[in-house]
Amino acid sequence: MHTEKLGGFTGLGLDERLVATLTELGYEEPTPIQREAIPPLLAGRDVLGHAATGTGKTAAFALPLLQRIAAQEGARGHTSALVLVPTRELAMQVADAVRTYGRALGIRVLPVYGGQAIGAQLRALRNGAEVVIATPGRALDHIRRDTLALDQVRTVVLDEADEMLDMGFAEELEAILEAVPATRQTALFSATVPPRIRGIAARHLTDPVHVAIARDGAVAGAVPLVRQTAHIVARTHKVDALARVLDVEHPTSALVFCRTRTEVDELTDALTGRGYRAEGLHGGLSQEQRDRVMKKMRAGAIDLLIATDVAARGLDIEHLSHVVNYDVPSAPEAYVHRIGRTGRAGREGVAITLAEPREHRLLRNIERVTKQTIEIATLPSVADLRARRLERTAAAVRDALASGELDAYRAVIHALAGERDVADIAAAALKLAANARRTRDEVEIPSPALRPNAERRSEAGTHQPRERRERVDGRWRAGPPRERGRAQRHPEWEVTRLFVGAGRKAGIRPGDLVGAIANEVGIDSSAIGAIEIADRFSLVEVPDEIIEDVITALRGTTIKGKRVTVRRDLGPTR
Ligand code: AMP
Question: Side-chain half-sphere of 17: how many Cα atoms within 13 Å?
């Protein structure tokens, strides 16, 4: 029974017309943030909401403000609610959502943002939109020109307040909040609540109700169905690794996240230089440049958007097939935000992370916080790449067969059929077609944790390091722990000895150390050298290249249930 199911929304005190719209939208139950924020907002209270995108927060603030406008005599024909958002994309998105939620009430909603023709905005504002969704800069422009009247504003919402601050809108926010009537209601939503946000809340919110929603509170179904994989690669091979991933995955549209503007520019150059259709997007671009890039992306003229977190926030791109993290974001929230860009609307999405060996620890942390598994997989090999290319060529052949118009080609087959078997001719044609898709050299990309110092050594012309790989379903597994004296020394690797402050008396066996190191650092156990166990301590040889990672990882964990001292061994090398 619908009414029973929607008891949730009705029970929050929402107008039945709004509830009916929610039914049409297929919302069955309020999300946690909606359950907690809607009643106080309807009652006119201020709210400080600690919630990220994907939790249903737009409806949480939109429904009450719509209801308040509908319920108030004389609220029509002037701006009654002002919602501030960080980007124009978000302004459009939120305006669409608010319009949808309020469609049964006939309330006018207007997005206002920079870059839009001001004349059209002025006309729309003069016509009296009850809800204005604006970016802070443009809102302040209008306020200063007296084209946006705030005297009747009863509700102000700051959406993604942390982002607005990150984008440098602090002054605009202060000015706007000073300009609205002191009696208005204020709701502030932010994915993170750093001191600066708390400061704004303290200055501009009155006795707010605090609502904090963990990411776990995200809307079921809105949480994307995302396949999450990570590849461990050395910094020097990251561009190659990304190219390999792109060649194998063949995304229809992908967003690649970088940490900095410089990285965005460099990576964009590197990828376009290799023939990918990529464009960069970051805060250093003008609005026109941004618009141009977005237009190209929407028109399908580019396949890859390389962006910083801030620039990507609120981007209105439908159906990203892939999100790639060119690095591991240090905050799990940022990771969640990034991968939330794919797998929308029930589609399957793919999130691929390139992690440097030292970033392995961050992946673990993200897994812990998100309670989701990120599969650590080897980079696709050249053989994988070729197999995928053949699959795609076969699919293209099927399409060509379906679309017909093959007469001209059939004539060639007839001519060749006199010389060779038709299946051979088809195979040769397929080979040519597959090779035509080949765009660059194909070489294996080394995996750092498995082949320490491989590059340095091969450059020096000495022998290659031994490789003992165990691959199960594309995942690296540490091999079974071997006993003392196992892997004497690897003369081809520079090894450093690790001191571990627990030994025989603590019940430590070589397998415990191998297991701890292999699991925590995510390296193959064959990378671990000789192990000596004394009464009170142990010494373990590990490749010098990863010793810092090993130390960091072991310091963050326990061995046999205990925290132990871990450092470089200072003793003499025997
Ligand atoms: P938001 O956090 O506002 O960006 O919302 C995330 C997604 O959840 C949007 O696609 C909403 O349409 C959807 N959504 C919001 N509230 C509900 C609900 N109560 N039930 C189902 N979906 C919802």
Answer: 14
For the stretch 96-142, pLDDT in tens is 999 999 999 999 999 998 877 777 788 888 888 999 999 999 999 99
What does residue 69 show for φ and ψ, rounded to 5 degrees? -70, -45
- Architecture of the domain made up of 471-568: 2-Layer Sandwich (3.30)
147, with CB counted inside 10 A (0-12, 13-18, 19+), is: middle
Ligand 1 lining (C-beta closer than 6 Å)? 27, 29-31, 34, 53-59, 219, 222
- Name, in order, each residue with C-beta under 8 angstroms of 263's C-beta and a sequence gap of 6 or more: 326, 327
**Which mutation among 2, 6, 87, 219 tests ligand 1's pocket best, with the greatest number of atoms within 8 A of CB?**
219
Superfamily for 227-376?
A: P-loop containing nucleotide triphosphate hydrolases (3.40.50.300)
**Torsion angles phi and psi, residue 242, rounded to 5:** -65, -45
Q: How far apart are CA 273 and CA 516, in angstroms?
A: 42
Q: What are the structure tokens assigned to 354, written together?
A: 């390139």
**The pairing of beta strand 225-232 with beta strand 348-355:** parallel
Instruction: List the residue whose alpha carbon is closest to atom 21 of ligand 1.
Output: 27
CB neighbour list of residue 173: distance below 8 Å, 6 or more residues apart: 84, 136, 158, 161, 164, 165, 200
Structure confidence at residue 246 (pLDDT) = 92
pLDDT above 50 (res 465): no
Candidates 59, 117, 107, 56; CA nearest to 79 is 107
| Nearest atom in ligand 1 to 344's CA | 10
pLDDT tens by residue, 386-445 = 888 888 888 888 878 877 788 888 888 888 988 888 889 999 988 888 887 666 667 788
Cβ(278)–Cβ(304) below 8 Å:
yes
| Alpha helix ranges (H) inside 418-546 | 422-436, 454-459, 510-521
Select, from the ranges 81-85, 163-167, 494-498, the one with the highest average predicted confidence (pLDDT). 81-85
Mean pLDDT across 233-248: 91
CA pair distance 196, 200, nearest whole angstrom: 6
Q: At the topology level of CATH, where does 2-217 sit?
A: Rossmann fold (3.40.50)
Instruction: Summarize pLDDT for 51-94 with one digit per residue, the tens.
Output: 877 788 999 999 999 999 999 888 788 999 999 999 888 898 89
Q: What would the two tokens of residue 440 be?
A: 């660059």
The reply to whether 471-568 shares the fold of 2-217 is: no
- Closest listed residue to residue 98, CA positions, set 72, 48, 60, 42: 60
CB 465 within 8 A of CB 452: yes
What residue's CA is closest to ligand 1, atom 6?
A: 54
CA of 223 to the centre of ligand 1 (A): 10
Kindly list the domain boundaries of the chain, sorted by start residue. Answer: 2-217, 227-376, 382-418, 471-568
Could you tell me the two tokens for 126?
A: 């003069």
